[in-house]
Amino acid sequence: MKKFKLIIIALTFVLNSTFVYAQSVEEIIKGRKAMFSENYQNGKKISILLKSGKKEEAKPIMKKMSENYKKLLDYFPENTKEGFKTEALPSIWENKDEFNALMQKASDDMLKLAKAIDTADDLRGIQKELMWSNCSACHNRFRAPH
After folding, report:
1. Which domain holds residue 90?
2. 74, 18 in Cβ contact below 8 A?
3. Which candidate among 87, 99, 106, 114 keeps its CA 20 to 30 Å from the CA of 142?
4. What confidence tens digit (pLDDT) does each residue in 86-112 have?
5. Does 8 map to a domain?
């Protein structure tokens, strides 16, 4: 029974790690664009909710953004540098560790933000520090101007 469980766990890991690679280049590029767009829209929702004092409603959205940033780590394979109106710059692949670290930081910071809003005196400031600054850092370094 233990061997069976280990096989199931290993199979699940392999299937999850190869999911993105089974997709077409078009699906990957459109998928990452959709996640970034969703995060931007969710960021705006969070701003509105925090301004309205609806902190608890904002927290699940922050968690979703965090999850998206983690998923995005798998959405930049080598074969997706061009095409399908990608706005990703070559610097992503040239500085892959830096890009991945930024995505991980953005994910971690969204979870920090969800905790920080309960005690922060300056909601706008903490949101800028833990959310919008990551967006800016990525756009400035890894996204084509639009």
Report:
1. 25-142
2. no
3. 114
4. 988 899 999 999 999 999 999 999 999
5. no
